[in-house]
Structure formats: structure tokens, C-alpha cells
Request: fold
Amino acid sequence: MKTQVAIIGAGPSGLLLGQLLHKQGIENVILEKVSPDYVLGRIRAGVLEQGFVDLMREAGVAERMDSEGEIHDGFEIALNGVRNRIDLKGLTGGNTVIVYGQTELTRDLMDARTKTNQTTHYQVNDVQPHDMLEEHPYVTYESGGKQYKLECDYIAGSDGFHGVSRKSIPKDCITEYERLYPGGWLGLLSDTPPVNPELVYIRHERGFALCSLRSQTRSRYYLQVGKNDKIEDWNDERFWEELKRRLPKDLADKLITGPSIEKSIAPMRSFVVDPMQYGRLFLLGDAAHIVPPTGAKGLNTAASDVYTLYTILTKVYGQGKTELLKEYSKICLRRIWDGERFSWWMSNMLHKFEETSAFNEKIYNSEIEYYLNSDAGRRVIAEQYVGLPYDNVE
Reply:
């Protein structure tokens, strides 16, 4: 089999890249090791920066997002029981975010790919890129007990942190940067109305909490938990009781609880690989970088990778600008490190980590108070939260 771009991974990054390339007449095939239902079963956040929203519209898959997604003009940070609103729209000259679940946008991308008869192979095994430094790389895989070879011009590795793409690059050709945080986020999804129309990030002496939402009838709440905590330790009753303890009193008093639809614990990690390419293999999203979820940058930094690679490949195929290929990693990493820094900052400011000294705890509290009580400080938070513009690809 032959194609122009082989995409490894059918998560949001791979699907969005595939749809954008298809719109430009660039053939692509997606290989995914799990089933479509499994992909859709991954519960993730859905705070979309303007850049991501624009890409969905450019890909022609924004109809449901635009009709069902919620435009948020701001969010809140509760510090020591006091709620502080960050006016995103007012502080950034009109920029906002859209709350639209990752499961839903993944479904939209899958449906669009099916309607346009694009090729996606699910539940494939032993995926392996080859000859990435050569002019004609290829990918081998196994499906239904048979071995296949997919010849291509370029390979896009969007198969996540544990995927094969990054592992296919020789260790001495990349540098990995990592910061592991103690504990993680315990998330609960419930069919209950949100406690607040906008997201509320909470710094509390008992640990961080977040009130999020998927719609006006479905809520997503998070609690910071210890590194040894397990899902079995947290029944619904314990979760709701602990959340109420961390909420400002006015929110705790009106919180509506209900049975959980899903509970999971997400670890907190900062991770970046440099460079993000090896010959004709390009890494995107979690295959190249991970952020703690505090700043809502995971899906959005992946989208900026998609934008960069899509734009480069469009100019390579349309204008013969092959010199742009070597710029991919440099362009991506500028924005990624900005997202990493903001997520690291938000995590340190709002969490209570066991490893944090009493001195640093006071410093973090003083710093977040300064930012929240300063017009300039709130503007910096707002500009980072809505997302900085994508770099030009020239």
C-alpha cells in the first residue's frame, strides 16, 4: 500500500491532521492499535483555545462544536475561600475559550473521516516506522493475522506518550526533559448541573480542586490526591464530601451531587522531547510533550503541532518548499515551552505538594495573590489561558 502521509494514532491530533490534509488533497492513512470505541472512551478535558477552534472550522468539522460548545468569557481562581474572576474577553481584547468535550470533538473527526471515505485501520498490532532518514520511509503493521507494509513520504507520530513513534528514534538523537509531580488528579464525571457557569480553580490548604463542566447538565470535578491514592479508595460519597470542604462556602452550599458516570486518576507530569522530528518522522501531541492538566494546555499544544505540520506539508506539496521540513521542531518547541511554563506555574501556584517547603509555600501564596490583585497580573494569566497566536510558517 502507498500513501503520502502515514499517521500513527487516531486520537484528536491524528484525526485532525488527517482531516486538514484531506481538505488540501494530501492522501493519508491512519493506523490505530485500539478500537474506535476505546478511543472514544478516553475521558479528557475540553477547554479549547481559539487556535484549536479555528483549526476545527478549517477542517470542516465545527458544526456541532459551534452549536453545542459553550463560549466562556472568563474563569475563576478561588484563593483561601475568596473567588477571583479572570475576565478573559476583557483582558485580551475579545479572546475567549470554548468548552467542548474531547470525546465529542473526536467523534466529530471520526464521522467526517468516515463520510469522506478516508482510510483508518483500527486494532492493528506491531506498528513500526522504518527508514525515517531515507527519502522513502514506510510503516509495517499486523492486522487480522497478516503483515502489511505502508509506503509513504512522511510519517506523523501522534500515538501518545507510550506509543511506538518516539521509541523508534535512537536515544542518542533526542533529549528528554521531565518533571514528575507527587500525586495526581482524581476526576469525577456526573450528570449534574455545574456548580458554577464558568470553571473554578481552587487553592486550598487541603489541596487543589477544580470545578469544570461539559454542558449545563453534565459536570466534571477534580481533586488533588496523594501518590498512593487509588480509585477504590474514593467512593462517590467521600469524593463529594471532600470537594465541599475545598470549595468556597457559597459554592459548597449550592453544589448538586449525584452518581458518578466515570472516575479516574490522572498523573501529573511535565515532559518535552527535543527535537520533535527524526528525518521524515514528526512527533505530535503527547508523543512529544506532556503538561500537567492545570493550565488546560495538553490538547491545545497538540493542536499547535498539528497546525505547524499541516501548514508545512501543504507548502511542501503545493509549493515545493521542502526546506520548511527542518523547521518543524524549532517552530513547535517555542510554543510548547510556553505552554509547559504556564502549566508548571499554575500547578505550583494552586497545588499543595508534599515536597514543597514551608518557605516556598508562602512564596507561591504571595505570588498568586499578587497576580490576582494586579491588572497586569490578571492580564498575563488571561493571555496565557486563551493561548498565544500560532507562529507563522514561512
The longest strand covers residues 175-190. The first helix runs from residue 12 to 23. The chain has a mean pLDDT of 95. The chain has 13 helices and 20 strands.
